[in-house]
Amino acid sequence: LLKLGGYGLIRISPLLNPHPSNLMFPIIILALWGILMTSSICLRQTDLKALIAYSSVSHMGLVTAAILVQTPWGLTGAMTLMIAHGLTSSALFALANTNYERTHTRTLLLVRGLQLAFPLMSTWWLLTNLTNMAMPPTINLLGELFIISTLFNWSPPTIIITGIGTLITATYSLYMFLMTQRGSISTQFRLLPPTHTREHLTTALHLLPLGLLIMKPALISGLFT
Q1: How many CA atoms lie within 13 A of 149 on its CB side?
Q2: Max Cα separation, the chain?
Q3: Is the full-model pTM beyond 0.85?
Q4: Whole-angstrom Cα distance, residue 116 to residue 50?
């Protein structure tokens, strides 16, 4: 739904061009403020799926602001980040489901130490969280750089908000990984069923495009260049 909303903004916003500044300015400011608010909410979440969902909303604040600025770089960055985060968010939800199928709880405090039980799945968690943080060489980094550059050219003070948002994103991504994978495993989870090949394949099919698309980003970002 978030990606469909971004698509709708891309299709409708040119109809408002040239934008009346008194209309678009408050909306862009609200989108930037939403990045900080939803990112901060992620830091206090105790439910794993709620944390992932709020993470998606935080990234969509960047997309909304970039689309409304209406520059080629902004639209390219918005499209790139929507596709990149669509894969990343889906991978996180899939990993959260593998945890839930074995522990039957989404509470972060109860599902600690799963690295001891599922070392390979812990590797997927690490790679997916690094992707969520827009670490190179993923396509997420390219999308965020386009958007941050666009917003900086539109108004230099926005670099403060986007910078803080990026820092908080890194914080809650590491928080998610540490809370689910590190620490001592609860005694009630000593006998957990093993992971399946289909679960590893599902995660790999999410992460491989994110790594490979950086070799030819024009496949998804060349629409507006």
Answers
A1: 14
A2: 62
A3: yes
A4: 24
Q: What angle do CA 196, 2, 161 make, to 5 degrees?
A: 105
Please state, in angstroms and rounded to a whole number, the distance separating the CA atoms of residues 197 and 219: 29
Give the pLDDT confidence of 130-155 residue by residue, as tens digits.
999 988 888 999 999 999 999 999 88
Q: What is the pLDDT of residues 32-56, one digit of tens each?
A: 999 999 999 998 888 999 999 999 9
Contact 191, 109 (CB under 8 A): no
Helices 197-212, 119-132: inter-axial angle, 10-degree rounding: 30
How many residues would you count in the chain? 225
Question: Taking phi first (over 0 means left), then psi (-120 to 50 degrees means alpha), and beta for anything else, what does residue 117 get?
Answer: alpha
The Cα 64–Cα 66 span in angstroms is 5
DSSP 118: -
CB 125 within 8 A of CB 179: no
Q: End-to-end alpha-carbon separation of the chain, Å?
A: 26
Which of 131, 134, 133, 111 lies closest to 192 in space, CA to CA?
111
Say which DSSP state 112 is in.
T
Residue 64 has pLDDT above 60, yes or no: yes
